[in-house]
Amino acid sequence: NLIMKKILLIAFTLIFCACSNSDDSNTNDIDKLIGIWKPYREVEVYTNGEEDIYFPSVCELKNRFTFREDRTFFNTNYPESDDPNCEELVGGLYQSGTWEKLSEMKYKLVFNCLVPDCDSYTENLDEVTFPNINLVKIKFYEDDSDDNLDYYFIELSRVE
Fold first, then answer.
1. Quick one: which H or E segment has residue 45?
2. Which helix (H) or strand (E) holds 3?
3. CA 10 – CA 60 distance, rounded (Å)
4. Which residue from 10, 39, 101, 122 has the least number of CB within 10 angstroms?
């Protein structure tokens, strides 16, 4: 369950960082999410109002999510570990792709598979907000949760 949440955290982190409007030709209106981001925290919110907060390990803090003006993204991944000398996980199937802003708070990420005969997949982010210029929050709602989880969100902080 924790491994799946970490995989989802990485995937969603990539997804919610897709924040540019391709229809806008005004160069002064660059999307807030273009840049390099790192994980800050993940919060699970239960139907009774209780919260579980997860902070990345020392090694996971090295993860980077890069969103470019050309509507492409790339991520680097490091394993969960408190060893600061950890090594990057290389060879993940879905480390890059394209993003599209669908509306004010909705984005779509298309993850490209890096091996032959492997399909890409799409993630739609329904609620992406920017509490401030250096923080992005992506919220996910749970429809089929059996542990009273109402929703969870991921926050990333700006590196550059």
1. strand 35-46
2. helix 2-16
3. 10
4. 122
CA of 101: how far to CAs of 91, 128, 133, in Å?
28, 10, 17
Phi, psi of 117, rounded to the nearest 5 degrees:
60, 35
Radius of gyration of the chain from its Cα atoms, rounded to whole angstroms:
16
- Locate 124 and state its tokens: 């739609």
Residue type, 38: K
Please provide residue 157's backbone torsions phi and psi, each rounded to the nearest 5 degrees: -110, 145
pTM for the complete prediction?
0.75
128-151: pLDDT as tens digits: 999 999 999 999 876 666 678 888
**In this structure, are residues 58 and 82 in contact, taking their beta carbons and an 8 Å threshold?**
yes
Please name which of 135, 2, 111 lies closest in space to residue 57, comparing C-alpha atoms: 2
Mean of the pLDDT values across residues 91-103? 87
- Which amino acid, one-letter code, is at 73? F
- Return d(Cα 10, Cα 156) in angstroms, integer: 11
